[in-house]
Amino acid sequence: MTEPAPGYSKINWLYEMYYGFRPNQPKFLPKDYPDLTGKAAIVTGSNTGIGASVVQLLYEKNCDVISVVRTEEKGLAAREKTLKEIPNSKGSITVVGGCDFLDLNNVRPTAHKVTEILKGRPLNIIIHNAGLMSPVNTGTSVQGYEAMFSTNVMGPQLLQHFLDPIFLKKDDPLKRIVWVSSCAHLMGFKEYGINWENPTFEGVPIKQRPRNMTLYGQTKAANLLQSHAWALKHSEAVQKIGAVSVGCFPGNLSTDLTRDWSFINMFAPYFLGTALQGAYSELYAALSPDLTTKDHGAYVVPYGEVHNPREDITAAYKNGSDLKFYQMVEELISKYF
Ligand SMILES: NC(=O)c1ccc[n+]([C@@H]2O[C@H](COP(=O)([O-])OP(=O)(O)OC[C@H]3O[C@@H](n4cnc5c(N)ncnc54)[C@H](OP(=O)(O)O)[C@@H]3O)[C@@H](O)[C@H]2O)c1
């Protein structure tokens, strides 16, 4: 069991929610990014939305990007568009299809393909960007897990498990992992955002599941816990290689995330930011020299600054509840190792 979570300030809660809709302008922009010639990055869910913009910005800086997607054709179409728009890059974009986190058996073959593409060269950046925000609470994965938990939490941690041996090497000074979270972490469960008894809701009848945004909020609180716990779990290697693992709320943005939310879509362009602005947030998390090994678990907010997450998440970083959560997920996913 974890320590009971402390309460959190409703005023901070409201402020952080409000900030998501009225963020400061980005300060860390492509002109500030380093040249990424010879560097390799993995971006999941990069056929559309924020992920597609992140790939473009990395590729523009000559990075070799591995675009991990579930539908290969969509990934190839996004790649074509980027190659046309940015004809002079010295980098590359390689698409790895078939990585649908709604079936965890897809993750091992995905990691295998990534390993083959890298052929032993350094892996510098991993951005766990793929995500699902379902308008209903009925989704269930092939293995019987709540769909958003399988997609946003179990899939990324399983992929990271396979990437750890490739990533955790002292082969290059640039080593970053970004776990894409959200201000929706504020809407997660009371105890560190997590429904500790059964976070996957396996075996729970749909009618007894909480509302969709509580389930989504749980997954985005989980991403923050993962960002800190991963660094704790690997603390020795992480210190040795100078790797940095952070969470990132990219912004409230008009993307395909709300493709099934007809009401939001009607008004989205009027009150939401763009995928490109979200990419600025994720690339602040991936590239800014402001973030160091002292910043594991940092909550990067739009469009590239650091705030405090909900108070109980900060407490989890200190009392080890983040690591307990990480280990709990690890037990669940170990069947797919
Ligand atoms: N947009 C926002 O306002 C916002 C706010 C806070 C946080 N975020 C986070 O930002 C990240 C990117 O979101 P976005 O706004 O760019 O959304 P998006 O345009 O819908 O892109 C999401 C990506 O994730 C992929 N994906 C969805 N379900 C998947 C699954 N089961 N397995 C593997 N990949 C899957 C999608 O693939 P398909 O195209 O094949 O479905 C797509 O490539 C997500 O983690 C999201 O939670 C977004």
What does this structure look like?
By secondary structure, the chain is an alpha/beta fold. It is 43% helix and 10% strand. Helix 2 crosses helix 9, helix 5 packs parallel to helix 6 and helix 6 packs across helix 11. The two termini are 25 Å apart. 52% of the residues are buried. The model has no long low-confidence stretch (mean pLDDT 96). The chain binds NADP nicotinamide-adenine-dinucleotide phosphate. NADP nicotinamide-adenine-dinucleotide phosphate (NAP) binds next to helix 2. It holds the Pfam family adh_short. This is NAD(P)-binding protein.
Index terms:
8 strands, NAD(P)-bd_dom_sf, oxidoreductase activity, SDR_fam, binds NADP nicotinamide-adenine-dinucleotide phosphate, 11 helices, eight-stranded mixed beta sheet, about 325 residues, alpha/beta, single chain, Rossmann fold, NAD(P)-binding protein, globular, NADP
Average pLDDT works out at 96
> Beta-sheet strand percentage?
5-15%
The CATH superfamily is known as NAD(P)-binding Rossmann-like Domain
The helical percent reads: 40-55%
Named once each, the bound ligands are: NADP nicotinamide-adenine-dinucleotide phosphate
CATH topology grouping: Rossmann fold
Tell me the domain tally: 1
Encode the helix/strand succession as letters: HEHEHEHEHEHHEHHEEHH
Query: What is the CATH domain class?
Result: Alpha Beta
**Main sheet attributes: strand count, strand direction, barrel closure:** 8 strands, mixed
What distance separates the N and C termini? 25 Å
State the shape.
globular
* Spans where pLDDT lies below 50 across 5 or more residues: none
